[in-house]
Specification:
By secondary structure, the chain is an alpha+beta fold. It folds into 2 domains: 125 residues, no CATH class; 76 residues, no CATH class. A hairpin with a 6-residue loop joins strand 9 and strand 10. It is globular and about 55 Å long. It binds zinc ion.
């Protein structure tokens, strides 16, 4: 398993222009005929990659890629968006950031390009900037991806138990749901962990992820199937998530 580097690239050009340097192809991980994007290496390095080898698989060479891309593989781009006239690309690369590739894109277009990416120490992010024919590196306090909403936030603010940003952790506190042995559910608005999880009355406590999820549980009888094989001492969250899934299936069936 490689060590993945998260890259967030901002290009000072509209997406319609940046698209000339991207390559769209069928997504091998999609079962519904979805598309995915890579950098168009034929467009960026026509001296090495022939037409038909836009992804750079045929002329691939480890040393060449490290020198001219800065990374072992042409990355699969997970996230493409235009914000206020600038193009944003989000993707992971194996081991290192593809800053040499971005330098090439800057040399060809003159666009200002900023790549904020992970570095070895999680306490810092590296910021690589190409502007006016020059490139520079800078270090900023680290950010990480929230496991719930996938926003980036300061690593210091990230909740260690859930790997979530402060907003998502707050969401948990607001909609704490208590399950009683008779199947009733009560919404508490207390702090996570403030209820007596192993008490006589309360069968399980978990935190819902949204107001809708909490309401669903509080207004539905908890399906018996949610309790089958459930270890409530060790896995109170598991019960909540299964109960929610079953409750939301019922709702869809009823239309
Ligand atoms: Zn979040």
């Amino acid at each position: 398993m490689p060590n993945w580097v998260y890259n967030e690239v901002e290009i000072a050009a509209p997406l319609t222009e940046v698209q000339a340097y991207l390559f769209e192809t069928d997504d091998p991980e999609s079962t519904t005929g979805g598309k995915t994007h890579y950098f168009n290496l034929r467009q960026l390095f026509p001296e090495r990659f022939e037409a038909g080898d836009e992804r750079g698989l045929q002329a691939w060479d480890y040393d060449w890629m490290l020198e001219y891309l800065g990374s072992k593989w042409n990355p699969r781009i997970d996230c493409i968006a235009e914000v206020e006239g600038d193009t944003h690309l989000g993707f992971d690369t194996a081991w290192s950031a593809p800053n040499a590739l971005l330098e090439r894109l800057h040399a060809l277009t003159g666009w200002k390009i900023v790549n904020r990416h992970d570095e070895e120490s999680p306490d810092y992010d590296a910021v690589f900037t190409c502007e006016d024919g020059r490139s520079s590196d800078e270090r900023l306090p680290g950010t990480s991806t929230c496991s719930n909403c996938e926003d980036r936030c300061s690593s210091d603010d990230m909740d260690e138990d859930y790997g979530e940003c402060p907003i998502c952790v707050k969401g948990r506190d607001n909609y704490l749901v208590t399950i009683e042995p008779d199947g009733a559910a009560i919404i508490n608005t207390g702090e996570s962990g403030s209820a007596d999880l192993h008490g006589d009355v309360v069968l399980g406590v978990f935190s819902a992820r949204s107001e809708r999820q909490a309401m669903l549980l509080s207004s539905n009888e908890i399906p018996a199937a949610a309790k089958e094989g459930w270890d409530w001492y060790n896995d109170p969250e598991g019960f909540g998530l299964r109960a929610y899934k079953l409750a939301s299936t019922d709702e869809e069936e009823e239309g």
